[in-house]
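Entry 14. Structure prediction run on the chain below.
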Amino acid sequence: MAYLMAQRYGKENSILFFTDTLWEHEDNYRFMYDVATYIGLEVTRRVDGRTPEEVFEETRFLGNSRLAKCSSQLKVRQTVIFIEELRSEGYEPILYFGIGPHEKHRKESLAQLYSHQALEPVETRFPLIDLNLSDSDIKSIIENEWKIELPLMYKMGFSHANCGGRCVRGGFNHYRHLYLTWPDEYRKQEECSRSRYLAVV
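Output returned:
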């Protein structure tokens, strides 16, 4: 998605924006910077300073597959702050999302979200959906043409690499895979979730 954006509008008109939850697997950072270098753009990183666990504790709300305050606090809020900073400098940003055809159901909700979160609605675009580019197509291009190694978590069989395998929106099958593949990480997440639940209840 970032490559397509930069090719169409020029690197001088493009920003790679990264909201860091501080929970990402270390190899995700390696991958992100490898791709950024290939495209020829720097990464603009914003960080709230809290982890998802700290957000859950502060809001007294246990993140789950239907609602995760970590996303709204650590990602959406930081994005909106950045959007308003750009607007104050005279720009009108457009948000590009790298979700593919298999996540088409998310398109409308993301468009709705950013039409209400900022002071004025923000335009959203989804080039991978528009071009019907599948995950396998994109991974093949990155690995075989760009010669960039995919994030380790994909090689471990995860369907996504969000939050180092601890994404609370992952669902049952995701956590089953985490348990079977990465039991130490699963146990750490289980212990944290149990302590939060006991504290809140």
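The mean pLDDT is 92.
Filed with the rest of this week's runs.
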